[in-house]
Structures are given as structure tokens and as C-alpha cells.
């Protein structure tokens, strides 16, 4: 597990989804969007994996993971996610379990 953790990093971006094709990005499969101010103001930190199978008392065996998170919220077209889902379905490896929303951990402190 540690060998995997040493080779894995997470890129994160937050979007407001809009019905405007001027915010279309055709290739979200390749990772973080670097365009204009997207992917420019990045926070770097060490954490672990996400998901509901681990919590604040049961840590992931895949740790530490390097997180690189865009600090800004960006607009993106709804059709960008349609295209991402299409691209995921076209992959040789089955990505069907990733085509729906997943849970996340509870926050460390209720004030956040």
C-alpha cells in the first residue's frame, strides 16, 4: 500500500455548472484543467484518500497522498460533464462505478 501512496496524487477543482457552451472543456479525462486562471492558484498538502469507508478514526492504508487543489471555483458547462461521462464509458477499463456521485468523509470539526 505504501508503494501506491508514494506514486499517487490527487488534483481537485471545484466548479459551478452552467448552461453556457463558452465554458466547455472537451478533455476532462486528462486531469486538472490548466487554462486562464484555472489551475493557477493551487494549495498543496498531504492527506489521505477520500470516501465513506474511512473516517477520522479509521485511516486509509493509502497515506500519505499529495493533494493539489485549485483554490478558486470556476464555471464549466454541463455538456463538459456529459463529454466526460462519454469518455469514461469509452475506456478499456470499466469505469461505470465512477459515473455517479460518491460520498465523502465528515468534516474534522463541525464548525467547518
Rg over C-alpha atoms, rounded to the nearest angstrom: 16 Å
Portion of residues in beta strands equals 25-35%
The shape, in one word, is globular
The largest sheet is:
3 strands, mixed
Task: Pick out the low-confidence regions.
Answer: none
Average pLDDT reading: 85
DSSP helix fraction = 10-25%
**Lateral strand order in the biggest sheet:** 1-3-2
DSSP strand tally = 3
The total of helices stands at: 2
Strand/helix succession: HEEEH
For the termini, the CA-CA separation is 30 Å
Structural class computed from helices and strand pairing: alpha+beta
SSE layout:
Blueprint lengths: L1 H6 L1 E10 L23 E6 L17 E13 H12 L23
Parallel strand pairs: 1-3
Antiparallel strand pairs: 2-3
Structure description:
By secondary structure, this protein is of the alpha+beta class. Helix content is 16%, strand content 26%. It contains two helices and three strands; from the N terminus they run H-E-E-E-H. Strands 1-3-2 form a three-stranded mixed sheet. The two termini are 30 Å apart. The mean pLDDT is 85.
Give a nutshell description of this structure.
This protein has 112 residues and is an alpha+beta fold. It has helices spanning 2-7, 78-89, and strands at 9-18, 42-47, 65-77.
Keyword list:
alpha+beta; 112 residues; 3-stranded mixed sheet
Amino acid at each position: 500500500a505504501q508503494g501506491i501512496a508514494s506514486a499517487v496524487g490527487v488534483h481537485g477543482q471545484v466548479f459551478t455548472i452552467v448552461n453556457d457552451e463558452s465554458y466547455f472543456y472537451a478533455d476532462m479525462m486528462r486531469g486538472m484543467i490548466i487554462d486562464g486562471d484555472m489551475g493557477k492558484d493551487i494549495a498543496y498538502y498531504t492527506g489521505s484518500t477520500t470516501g465513506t469507508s474511512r473516517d477520522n478514526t479509521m485511516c486509509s492504508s493509502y497515506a500519505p497522498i499529495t493533494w493539489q487543489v485549485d483554490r478558486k471555483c470556476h464555471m464549466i458547462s454541463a455538456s463538459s460533464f456529459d463529454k466526460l461521462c462519454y469518455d469514461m464509458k469509452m475506456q478499456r477499463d470499466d469505469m461505470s462505478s465512477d459515473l455517479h456521485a460518491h460520498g465523502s468523509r465528515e468534516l474534522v470539526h463541525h464548525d467547518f
